[in-house]
Design a protein that fits this description.
mainly alpha, MetI-like fold
Length: 282
């Protein structure tokens, strides 16, 4: 009887999670479907499957990438530069900070840790106008300087996860490295950092999805006449009198989410490991 109940519970859970998965995948399917339909067909019935009259092939993709005077591939380049530099800076700086916080244990390090955790609950809207003016005055309004701002906003979650994992690393390993002649820098990069791989991947995936899809911060900080990221480029797919080409918009939205989806699917097996390791109590 108990086995039958367990089988029924597993079947019920499978059905429930299958329905939830379909609900989450439905918006992506709608974007994919509408990216191959004409603008009039999308406005008339966005849930209809493309047919002989509404199907336009790759026209929406071509139009989206050639719309206006700003090349789409230039927006892709700036998005890649900002994402790669921001995530690399976040991973290196926060992992080193978390290692110091975990091993030193002083009042100052604990205060820094609690400030990092507190920063996760501060809404971006509270500081965005002050931040925009500060970024302009300090020259942080370029694609290669905006990662410094992303470091400030992404440090909270990253430090929180890294600290939990570092506490699970036996201190004896670092002591053995010190006996062999490793200084703090060599100990971190040769011993600690390789052991942080699960959490590095988990934090990296979360930060990449955030930075790549972020619209508000680049919109406020960057000079939009010179630098556009993909979300900003999509927002400018407007014609006269505020009209929007929905077909081209859907096509570019799909192109923008494909790299993140591929990266997430490639690294998903490491995410649960990193989150579970970051939840260790010290």
């Amino acid at each position: 009887m108990k086995l039958k109940k367990k089988d029924k519970n597993k079947t019920a859970l499978t059905v429930i999670f299958a329905i939830i998965a379909v609900v989450y995948l439905l918006p992506i399917f709608l974007v994919l479907m509408n990216s191959f339909k004409s603008n009039a067909a999308i406005n008339l019935n966005p849930f209809a499957i493309p047919d002989g009259e509404s199907f336009v092939g790759w026209a929406n993709y071509i139009k989206g990438m050639t719309f206006g005077n700003y090349p789409f591939f230039k927006s892709v380049l700036y998005s890649v530069i900002i994402t790669v530099m921001s995530v690399a800076l976040i991973l290196i700086c926060t992992s080193m900070a978390a290692w110091y916080i975990s091993r030193v244990g002083s009042t100052i390090s604990k205060t820094v840790y609690f400030l990092c955790v507190f920063s996760m609950v501060v809404p971006f809207q509270m500081v965005m106008f002050t931040l925009s003016r500060t970024a302009d005055s300090l020259g942080l309004n370029k694609p290669w300087t905006i990662p410094i701002i992303y470091l400030g906003f992404g440090a909270g979650l990253a430090v929180f996860m890294f600290v939990g994992f570092v506490k699970s690393i036996p201190l004896e390993i670092e002591e053995a490295a010190a006996i062999d002649g490793c200084g703090p820098v060599r100990t971190f990069f040769l011993v600690v950092l390789p052991m942080l791989k699960p959490t590095l991947i988990s934090v990296g995936v979360l930060e990449i999805m955030w930075v790549w899809n972020d619209y508000l911060l680049p919109y406020l900080v960057l000079d939009r006449t010179e630098y556009m990221t993909i979300p900003i480029h999509i927002q400018y797919l407007k014609g006269s009198f505020g009209s929007v080409d929905l077909g081209a918009t859907m096509a570019l939205i799909l192109l923008s989410i494909v790299p993140v989806i591929v990266f997430y699917l490639t690294c998903q097996k490491h995410i649960i490991k990193g989150v579970a390791a970051g939840a260790v109590k010290g």
